[in-house]
Write a structure and sequence with these properties.
homodimer, 545 residues, alpha/beta, Nitrilase/N-carbamoyl-D-aminoacid amidohydrolase, 2 domains, six-stranded mixed β-sheet, 37% helix
Chain lengths: 545, 545
Amino acid sequence: MKIAVAQINSIIGDLENNKNKILNYYNKGVEQGADLVVFPELALIGYPPLDLVEKKEFRERAAAIHQEIALAAGKTGLLFGSITDSNEKVGTNIYNSAILCHDGKIQFIQNKSLIPNYDVFDEVRYFEPSKLTNVYKFNGEVLGISVCEDIWNDEDYWNNRRYLEDPVKNQIEMGATLLINISASPFSVGKRELKRKMLSVLTKGNNIPLVYASYVAAQTELIFDGASMCFNNSGDLVKLGNAYEEDFFIFDTDEKYNTINKAENCFEEEVLSALIFGVKDYCNKLNFKKVLVGLSGGMDSAMVTYIAVKALGKENVHTVLMPSKYSSKGSIDDSIALVNNLDISHNVISIEPVFDNLTAQLADAFNHLPEDITEENLQARIRGIYLMALSNKHKYLLLSTGNKSEMATGYSTMYGDMCGGLAVIADVYKSDIYRLAGFINKEEKIIPQEIIDKAPSAELRPNQTDQDSLPPYDLLDRILKMYLEQNKEYNEISKVIGDAPLVNRVLRLVDINEFKRKQSAPVLRVSSKAFGYGRRYPIVQGWRK
Amino acid sequence: MKIAVAQINSIIGDLENNKNKILNYYNKGVEQGADLVVFPELALIGYPPLDLVEKKEFRERAAAIHQEIALAAGKTGLLFGSITDSNEKVGTNIYNSAILCHDGKIQFIQNKSLIPNYDVFDEVRYFEPSKLTNVYKFNGEVLGISVCEDIWNDEDYWNNRRYLEDPVKNQIEMGATLLINISASPFSVGKRELKRKMLSVLTKGNNIPLVYASYVAAQTELIFDGASMCFNNSGDLVKLGNAYEEDFFIFDTDEKYNTINKAENCFEEEVLSALIFGVKDYCNKLNFKKVLVGLSGGMDSAMVTYIAVKALGKENVHTVLMPSKYSSKGSIDDSIALVNNLDISHNVISIEPVFDNLTAQLADAFNHLPEDITEENLQARIRGIYLMALSNKHKYLLLSTGNKSEMATGYSTMYGDMCGGLAVIADVYKSDIYRLAGFINKEEKIIPQEIIDKAPSAELRPNQTDQDSLPPYDLLDRILKMYLEQNKEYNEISKVIGDAPLVNRVLRLVDINEFKRKQSAPVLRVSSKAFGYGRRYPIVQGWRK
């Protein structure tokens, strides 16, 4: 059987656009002699549609389009993801469905059985679990069709399972000869290799081939990396779709393919590719042509600028240098060197006159109290005003440049350096940003060595460095990773680090700065636990006081 | 049987504090001769604890405290809400439990059966549903103990049910003679009356009394209004706890009480009380003594200032007037009149010099393009900088003043008037703010009549009024209520309003401004659908382009 995998980038809620994309790729599949063309989970709807699915008119429009798509389907099957009504009087009344059309009709629907509701997934809010699992005979094969999470509960692979049922196992027991999983699974580092291994165990153990059709898109925070996979019945990965872009390919179950042994590239390459795609697709979908970055002379703004140039092209990235009296000459020179290396435009606008003016205006209301964090924040906020003014005037999307270590500890100013429409590297620890820089510079010296070598500093007071207030980043990031990503707590982390007061201080910094993160720009997610939608922590809490 | 209801305000995660509160109220119940002292849902943990419950050390500490509480319990029963481990290998492994102790031991645990996962509820993320419903014989009664949502699925009351099971019905069938529901149910206008009616139908229909013990707290966005209720077996509400404060009272099932016919006050009174409590409890829990409000001369900032004074006292509310060249003399006079009426402190700091300085600095980078929205936003952002500077310098919590109509349509400036730690009235439509003002002024002329009478204006350009860009607020708010709270869509709303292009424009404004709301301060929730945690809408979507 020849199965075409159409790994498409749907726009959430844009049913007409997504329908046309589905029909175009279907026709391509027909032309190339496919028996079946497979699209990802919720291909017609976009993922995640969130509260959009609660709108009756939206669901009715989707249902009408299902009929249009079915009418366009001929002998070649067309399998796509969408939402359908359950017509029950209890619950949400909506299913997350795989819809199979051929010969002008919807012939078979398999609803999703396992409804994920952890980290970035909130599907129980929207979808009822399928009450039935079935198989469908088509062109001599018995298809076991499932939706995303349905394939993530293999008893042979997982020690701790989220669900009691295993719908894919049921389909195999019902005589399935070919598994098809339509998916929308957000990227995080290491997950593609995990998928490859998990799906290899499944296909090998059950002696059955699998088509795993992935969604590719950046949907604000979430990056869906594509990389659809096909396995033969020996558990070998034999087809791998492109990552971070639309793709279309044919998998013939009768053909012999070479085995692909690795699905994922190194940390640096994957993270950079994911972030570049995240910026590009967000700008495309919001129709922003150009972006703006404030250059401090430090590593973070250099990295964001590099990513922006790779995403949008050098002619679409503008930068601003905003020195103060605390800015070192090095900071300005290093920024100019970066601008030259990347061949992009820039402005230099001092914040000093505005700072002096502001502090004069506020002097009485300050009651002549001594300088403190207020004056540091003022500088960051003047820069925020400059950046937003240029963004408004020239229709740039402002990219914010905070890293994960900073976001975690609150080493950032609300309405200052936190300004922006997208937080590009806020899921990458500071120490990992250096790894990325090293990786970039291996091919071409783009990030000036001075930026890599200097001690990180906010330059908001004389001779300030980040390490005046924070532990060294390597140590800090080890603590943060355990706390944020491995869900460890104080005692466990202290045992590993051996410095309990420091661990307590860091964890407390993370907890008390939840209010800042509440107001941050959306964070592109590349780790298994990012700030944003997948992490929900109370702003007011007394667990750690 | 004498049941003491201890309607307490727990701090999320502050297990020691919450334990002491539980033990103190328990002792009070013992002293007053109660047979059983009942605390709300998750009384030991605080509600909603969010990802805190995913921490093993947190759960272990809670489990240890359960034993301390049990040891302190004598003949008098102590029923409180907490989390317990399910010890299963599948799922989250955590229950949301009602724990009954007496005679030094945990005697009975009833886990929550119905796990809400809609609007502001995400409980499926954390809690497994109970596998068993049971009753417990105590002091001659058969107790049917349930947790919050468990009592919200009565087939006799609801047409569309969320769940198939009805655990409370099961308990009645098992011979329960007294129902006890421990609850943490966030306030919205009308909900308390709905509860009274629903619980009256239940108790009357089944000829059984009920103790409904409520949580009282403001947890950032969510306001839990207390108002615990007791019903006799004729369906009469006979005991009603205080709203918006801790309370303790005894309900004796053998005693005759007068019937209470109304549980909820008028719209204006409830909304004002809820918001006052919301501000007060947020400041208390974050240890902010004083708040700051920027006074524009308009209705919104006047309303927020009034609420702040009621919440914290006049000596703890500071205001700033920040006129520009577009500010009318009236705006300043009206603000001063308000300040005098409320007897609070203020500063006046012009934004003109800073505005002139900023535009001069930016002139080159603006390429001498004509004035546009940029300059309007600049003014709002200078005010934001002033407010944040005073907030930093004097440790004030800045209250933001946007209303729901503004938040909906994006008629606000990010990092400008949206600055603040708490959005006090962002769940109240502009037209409803006028209702509140009328209500306040009935007793005492506090809000100057000029503020009520003038046309709303942002005063960011000459002779600007809100109605230059928005439809009249009465009409706008009708559209917004249908769209946001009744979940209606374009066609349905257009039919009611009769102006399809206007409806389309308003709905589009709401949709495209999701990116602004992503970065807003937490919004105190008083409606059934507020911006914030309970509403999840994609920033990037093509449903409405």
